[in-house]
Design brief:
alpha+beta; 2 domains; 60s Ribosomal Protein L30, Chain: A; five-stranded mixed beta sheet; 29% strand; seven-stranded mixed beta sheet
Length: 337
């Protein structure tokens, strides 16, 4: 595919649209309670980071797409716990516990979801400590919430012009049938999974990085746009440099939702040290772009260039009334100092 076709497909994908819907929801909230109005807890990160003592409590929730719960109940349960854990680590934290809200058509359907959640809880060493259940619903639905703690933060609000944009991803996995879920978790050893995730809080604590986001349903490009929008910056992303498994078409990879995948914005002097941290754990990590001050997200591929999103004119996840769609990132940086 040529770049213009790739960009068109990504912009119109349901994964981009689902993330873009966040701006409308935040817009409704913004009418009653201004978003990012200086209360110290910024909206747009993977978790709410609540200052506490000499660190931060991290609080997050993930809702699972209903068709995913219906068609892959065990893996949906597993993923509900796994993606929340990823959110905590993406913020430089370590998870404490999860709770869930589960609806199902009968106990049999609920059992498969619960078994998946229990397996992820066991593998990652994060207990399920409560929740809500209803087995008399007319359809299955699942939401999982998590609590964690960070000593120092990785945040979507800390990317700066001149940073190296890195992609780190575990390519020792496979797609789940025709779905976009790149599963490098359910067959891996618990010890390996936990040590691989520990890279993220260590990067924050060793002050090698302060800006990151886990790759979500929006894929690598959508996730990058979310990070860049929160920081009030743009970037040039070279698709030719993406770490990509052999025989996987680029468009499918761009839409992938990996079990272990992160975008990081890193000061140039720390780029190689960060890459080495991941590669020492056999995690693919490469520089895929450079952050700039244009507020435009530009893609390069096979000699062509295209602006896939202009944050000067079109918000992505933040409401249009949210301080020109970007909060002053100096607030977040001061919290990390």
């Amino acid at each position: 595919m040529v770049l213009s076709e790739i960009a068109k497909v990504l912009r119109s994908s349901r994964f981009f649209q689902h993330k873009h819907d966040i701006s409308d929801v935040l817009g409704a909230l913004n009418k009653v309670m201004p978003v990012n109005a200086g209360n110290g807890v910024l909206i747009g990160d993977d978790c709410a980071a609540i200052p506490e003592g000499d660190g931060y409590l991290l609080f997050a929730i993930e809702g699972l797409v209903s068709e995913f719960v219906r068609e892959m109940p065990w893996f949906a349960g597993y993923s509900g716990v796994m993606v929340n854990i990823s959110d905590i680590y993406a913020m430089g934290g370590r998870p404490i516990a999860v709770v869930n809200a589960l609806w199902s058509e009968g106990l049999i359907n609920a059992e498969k979801i619960v078994e998946g959640m229990a397996q992820a809880s066991k593998v990652y060493g994060v207990p399920i400590v409560g929740g809500h259940s209803n087995v008399r619903s007319n359809q299955g639905q699942l939401a999982v919430s998590i609590l964690g703690r960070a000593n120092k933060l990785l945040s979507s609000f800390n990317a700066r012009p001149g940073d190296k944009l890195l992609m780190a991803i575990d390519m020792r996995g496979k797609f789940e049938n025709d779905y976009p879920y790149w599963n490098a978790s359910s067959k891996a050893s618990p010890e390996r999974l936990r040590k691989d995730l520990e890279i993220l809080p260590l990067l924050a604590e060793e002050e090698l990085c302060d800006a990151a986001k886990d790759i979500s349903m929006a894929g690598i490009i959508g996730t990058s746009i979310m990070l860049l929008e929160c920081s009030g910056v743009g970037a040039n992303i070279d698709l030719n440099k993406l770490p990509i498994p052999p025989e996987v078409p680029i468009l499918r990879w761009l839409a992938a939702f990996p079990s272990y995948g992160f975008v990081l914005s890193v000061r140039p002097e720390h780029g190689q040290a960060v890459i080495s941290k991941f590669k020492n754990r056999f995690i693919a990590c490469q520089e895929i772009g450079v952050v700039n001050d244009t507020k435009k997200v530009t893609l390069e591929y096979q000699g062509a260039t295209e602006v896939i999103w202009d944050l000067n004119t079109h918000h992505f996840i933040l409401p249009t009334t949210s301080t020109a769609a970007v909060v002053d990132s100096s607030l977040q940086r001061s919290r990390n100092a």
